[in-house]
Design goal:
The structure holds 2 protein chains of 2 kinds.
Chain A: E1 2-7, H1 13-21, E2 38-44, E3 47-53, H2 65-76, E4 81-87, H3 91-102, E5 108-113, H4 115-120, E6 123-125, H5 127-134, E7 138-140, H6 149-159, H7 173-178, H8 191-199, H9 203-213, H10 221-236, H11 243-263, E8 264-266, H12 273-283, H13 285-331, H14 336-374, H15 377-390, H16 396-406, H17 408-414, H18 421-429, H19 440-451, H20 455-482, E9 493-496, H21 504-539, E10 541-542, E11 545-546, H22 547-561, H23 566-574, H24 582-590, H25 602-611, H26 616-627, H27 633-643, H28 646-672
Parallel strand pairs in A: 1-3, 1-4, 4-5, 5-7
Antiparallel strand pairs in A: 2-3, 6-8, 10-11
Chain B: E1 12-17, H1 21-29, E2 37-43, E3 47-52, E4 55-60, H2 61-64, E5 67-70
Antiparallel strand pairs in B: 1-2, 1-5, 2-3, 3-4
């Protein structure tokens, strides 16, 4: 049996999906926003259900790109039943969608989720009465603790074979005009729905309808004539074409209000006083800003401090295994050239990337997801919308930027939450201007070596670098929205959902599986071949020096213009797969080694850099270049995937690089004068 | 009067929405339609958040100027 799961955004639809199918089927989706269908299975009472999780939608009449998937599914999909998920705390608005769905099918179960939250707010819902009015089963659930899920499945199995009459929308004034179309509309489903779309001249809908039912509504000239006559009549009666949608929605919304007044009781008029209190604190100019900065600082601090231990553990573990692997391969008398390339090239780079990349992400993203679950993040978007609006973008970009601190690839994918395609691109292209977890270690160690050893001043300087990155984000966003991505910041409507207690356990699982492993997988795919290339460059000799040496010599003059040297530039180039290996490659280059290596002793590393001609300016240029250069390969692959455009992938590559070259050039120039 | 003229915590009833097709649709989506009660509860320089049908929606002043309300 095929069952579609639909509902307004942010009602816990995906949690219901998980409760129905078990966590493990949940793949190919992005927390916070379902952009495509996700499938899962459930066997109940011997019947197999295929559950399809669809993108959240407010209504079937309107359509953004993602909502179209849902609308087409409801109107034309091959399902046996639909589950419409509603938020118990805002049932009136959610009923809008329910009513529209009931126009098309009676095989519906209404799932009122988050009834525990409603109870806390003393909102009382009479499920039986609601069910009587609507003509379909209504089930209350608490998806996070799987309460009511069995009832949901029971009702589902019944509704599939039911032929109940359900509540229909009363079109009132529109009725008079819609009936004039009835004789040409076949009886496949609600004539009213087809009529409304004919009057709206919604060709997306009509084409799909024609395709499914072999009709020719989108092209038939007689139909067109009839429609324009009716529209003319409407106009004469004082109704505008624009009014059709408004009228339909108005009738639906009046109906919903009527229903709610019968079945919902707010026993505490101030049921939302806690939320409103938190809102005031979080969006206040002073306290809101302080909390925002404080939380960002806290999350980054926890990530940086606590990632060291697991990183070291993984690092040690992988290196122990490296010896085992080496001996194992040597045992089979594989030529040493190949063994070395595999072990010191492919394996070591791979192990390195995993060891330094995994722990910070596994700490950062759960923390971020907790804030997301809590409902805090939209408040940040609300607070910062002003400044982003000035740059031609919207407040949600603040959230993708913060995700970028964890990992730019995640920030890029996270940009899906931005509705306008133009603003989404702005967010994607500028995401790498904030340093990700992979670049923090480099910044921190260079600051402590060359600038200040005091930890407090050190973090202040680090903050300065970050603030500069954020400033550049604004600047480039603004420049882009005046040039390549010309346009005014369009309308921006932001839902501020109720605060919820985060589900810590699920947060960790979800953020690690969905976000961390998602990126790690891509990083592994790019680092393995990169390891081989690095090894080959360092170990193939032409005329007495390695290819790597030849390349660094070649890049040397260019590097010195930018206040750096050939080895540093080469390290950034070879660090393309992952920023984590930039310093190890530098060390390899300076020591003329054939494999990447780390020096844990800061003093030793400092001396190595000094002996190779580094000074404060070099370190500053390296840090700036680390913030402003091409995004790592994982991020670029993700950009390609998200935008589907080579042009924008290339621009995301070249804009930060050009900026880095300019900034370093200027810094170097100023110092020389 | 315009929605933007509504004072904080002052409840109004939406009377008319005169926005472009696209924005109007999005307004309709979130329940902004004739006859609906709306109350601004948060504000900053460019946005205000409104309580509408039990949910809180942030709208830019630029957009909300297209909404007419009556008290």
């Amino acid at each position: 049996m095929r069952v579609g799961l639909i509902g307004n955004p942010n009602v816990g639809k995906s949690t219901i999906f998980n409760a129905l199918t078990g966590m493990h089927q949940h793949t190919g989706n992005w927390p916070g926003k379902t952009v495509d269908k996700a499938y899962g299975y459930r066997v109940y009472n011997g019947v197999q259900y295929i559950i399809e999780d669809l993108p959240g939608t407010y209504s079937l009449i309107s359509h953004s790109k993602e909502e179209e998937i849902t609308r087409d599914y409801v109107y034309f999909g091959d399902y046996d039943a639909l589950i419409v998920v509603c938020d118990a705390c805002s049932i009136e608005r959610n009923l809008n969608l329910v009513m529209q769905v009931l126009e098309v099918t009676n095989k519906v179960v209404v799932c009122v989720n988050l009834i525990d939250e409603a109870k806390k707010k003393k909102i009382e819902i009479d499920f039986n009465k609601l069910s009587d009015i609507l003509g379909v089963p209504v089930v209350g659930t608490i998806a996070r603790s799987k309460k009511g899920i069995d009832n949901l499945l029971d009702d589902l199995s019944r509704v599939i074979y039911s032929h109940n009459d359900v509540k229909k929308i009363n079109y009132e004034v529109l009725d008079n005009y819609l009936v004039k179309l009835f004789d040409i509309i076949p009886n496949y489903f609600s004539k009213n729905v087809v009529g409304v779309h004919l009057l709206l001249k919604d060709y997306d809908f009509l084409n799909s309808y024609d395709y499914k039912y072999n009709t020719d509504f989108s092209s038939n000239s007689l139909v067109k004539k009839r429609v324009s006559t009716i529209l003319n009549d409407m106009f004469k009666d004082g109704l505008d074409y624009d009014d059709i949608q408004t009228l339909v929605m108005e009738n639906v919304s009046v109906e919903c209000e009527k229903i709610c007044s019968k079945v919902v009781r707010f026993n505490d008029k101030n049921y939302d006083k806690n939320d409103r209190f938190l809102d005031k604190i979080f969006t206040n100019k002073v306290s809101g800003s302080l909390i925002m900065i404080g939380l960002l600082f806290l999350v980054l601090w926890i990530t940086i401090v606590f990632a060291n231990y697991p990183s070291q553990f993984l690092y040690d573990l992988f290196f122990k295994f490296e010896k085992v692997l080496f001996n194992f391969l040597a045992f089979f008398h594989i030529p040493s050239f190949i063994v070395n390339a595999l072990v010191y090239g492919v394996y070591r780079v791979l192990a390195w990337v995993v060891a330094v990349m995994l722990p910070p992400m596994a700490i950062f993203f759960p923390l971020f997801t907790i804030l997301e679950d809590l409902g805090y993040l939209p408040r940040i978007a609300f607070n910062l919308d002003g400044i982003y609006q000035k740059c031609g973008s919207c407040g949600k970009q603040a959230l993708t930027m913060v995700q970028g601190f964890g990992c730019n690839a995640v920030g890029v994918t996270g940009s899906r939450i931005i509705d306008s395609p133009r603003e989404r691109l702005l967010s994607i292209v500028t995401n790498s201007f904030v340093p990700c977890n992979g670049r923090f270690p480099l910044l921190i160690s260079l600051i402590s070596m060359f600038l200040v050893s005091n930890k407090v001043f050190g973090s202040l300087i680090l903050t300065l670098f970050i603030v500069f990155g954020i400033f550049i984000t604004f600047l480039i966003t603004k420049i882009l929205s005046k040039t390549l991505l010309k346009g005014f910041s369009s309308s921006f409507i932001l839902e501020l959902p109720p605060y919820r207690r985060p589900q810590i356990g699920k947060v960790i699982v979800r953020s690690i599986f969905d976000r961390t492993l998602f990126v790690l997988k891509r990083a592994v795919i790019v680092s393995a071949p990169a390891g081989l290339i690095i090894w080959l460059l360092a170990n193939i000799y032409i005329g007495g020096s390695s290819i790597l040496g030849i390349c660094t010599d070649f890049l040397s003059p260019f590097g010195s213009i930018l206040g750096m040297d050939g080895v540093i530039l080469m390290a950034f180039l070879l660090g393309f797969p992952a920023n984590e290996i930039v310093i190890p490659i530098m060390i390899m280059g300076y020591m003329s080694l054939g494999y990447i290596i780390d020096i844990n002793n800061t003093q030793e590393l400092y001396n190595l850099f000094l002996n190779n001609g580094w000074n404060i300016v070099t370190s500053i240029c390296v840090m700036l270049f680390s913030i402003f250069h091409f995004p790592c390969m994982t991020t670029l692959l993700t950009i390609k995937k998200e935008t589907g455009s080579l042009k924008w992938t290339f621009l995301s590559f070249i804009i930060p690089l050009a900026l880095g070259i300019i900034v370093c050039f200027i810094v170097n120039l100023i110092v020389k004068i | 009067m315009k929605l933007n003229d509504l004072k904080l915590y002052e409840e109004g009833i939406i009377n008319k929405v005169t926005a472009s097709e696209d924005i109007k649709r999005r307004f309709l989506d979130i329940g902004i339609n004739r006859g609906v009660k709306i109350k601004p509860i948060l504000s900053n320089k460019t946005m205000r958040a409104y309580l509408i049908k039990g949910t809180v929606i942030g709208i830019r002043l630029n957009d909300s100027k297209n909404i007419e309300v009556i008290i």
